[in-house]
Amino acid sequence: MWGIIATWKMALDGVEKATEMLKNSGDAGDAIETAVKEVEDFPYYKSVGFGGLPNEEMEVELDAAYMDGDTLDIGAVAAIKDYANPVAIARRLSKEKVNNLLVGQGGEKYAHKAGFERKNMLTERAKIHYHNRIKEVREQEIKPYTGHDTVGMVCLDMQGKMTSATSTSGLFMKKAGRVGDSPLAGSGFYVDSKVGGASATGLGEDIMKGCMSYEIVRLMKEGMHPQEACEKAVDMFDQELRERRGQAGDISVIAMNNQGQWGAATNIEGFSFVVATAKQKPIVYLTKKIDGKYIHEAASQEWLDNYMTARMAPLVKK
Ligand code: SD4
């Protein structure tokens, strides 16, 4: 068995590439890194890698992580600037004995010495988004910009090894130095090859409060199917936040166990994700909750076309 699951439709091309590797006995570490890099390199995705939207100071600060489910090795970078593929730096860090999570300049120095490609990650298009947003919104409340799109993945290879990885530019207009859930083990990602893995996207500040990814893996370890674990973790924590705080931020999750079974859940409208396994070709699903029950529907060609058209539409400075 092999499989890969990833947040958001934007992961499709990367998942397709990973599928080719996994089918041919490829390693889950190589496959997941290839898949995440594909998303990082595509300039029209606004919250991952090149083309990611900047912070308040118009600087693109990136968070990324990598975890090996066999050894439980973790590597992560947070709030780093000017590197093309943060996930590759995170993976390299996972091989160190200590110093596995590096922030800001420390992460950049490590990446420089390790020979990673420097790149100005701020595109002209992202600058236009920034200027338009400054004009549009004066409200200070922190919220993910519409269609928050952190990429998070879980991968299983034929050898039974599982990995998890994330990459994001975080929340649009975040404060300089703000770190979300994505580089934090247990919150944005977690994987254990003996059980399975999970990853989250949404409002990092709330995802962290519930250590969502670890919670899902914990529930799977207790014997739950990934779908049941995702539903339980999201529904219970969403309710908990509402009761205690009066509101809950966006939380969307994906999970896969070491049998290649998978699941997803969300507390928003319009969450999409991509799955491929030895049993099914890569499919983009849209998650809906009808009468309290989650339904994953394969996205139509029209929906897929509209997704790309919307992301690549010309942008005018207001
Ligand atoms: C964060 N969870 O930095 C990320 C944001 C996100 O798509 O998912 N954006 O809080």
Description of the molecule:
This protein is α+β, with helices and mostly antiparallel strands and 318 residues long. It is 33% helix and 26% strand. Strands 4-3-2-6-5-1-11-12-13 form a nine-stranded mixed beta sheet. A four-stranded antiparallel beta sheet has the order 7-8-9-10. The longest helix is centred in the last third of the chain and has 20 residues, at 226-245. The radius of gyration is 18 Å and the shape is globular. The model has no long low-confidence stretch (mean pLDDT 94). The structure holds N-hydroxy-L-asparagine. The site of N-hydroxy-L-asparagine (SD4) has 16 residues, from strand 8 and helix 6.
- Portion in helices: 25-40%
Task: Tell me the fraction of residues in β-strands, as a range.
Answer: 25-35%
Order of helices and strands: EHHEEHEHHEEEEHHHEEEEEH
- Report the C-alpha radius of gyration, rounded: 18 Å
Write down the overall geometry: globular
Instruction: Specify the number of helices.
Output: 9
Can you tell me the residue ranges where pLDDT is under 50 for at least 5 consecutive residues? Answer: none
Task: State the major sheet.
Answer: 9 strands, mixed
Task: Walk across the major sheet and give the strand order.
Answer: 4-3-2-6-5-1-11-12-13
> Structural class given helices, strands, pairing?
alpha+beta
Q: CA-to-CA gap between the ends? A: 51 Å
Q: Total strand count, please?
A: 13
Mean pLDDT, to the nearest integer, reads: 94
Bound molecules: N-hydroxy-L-asparagine
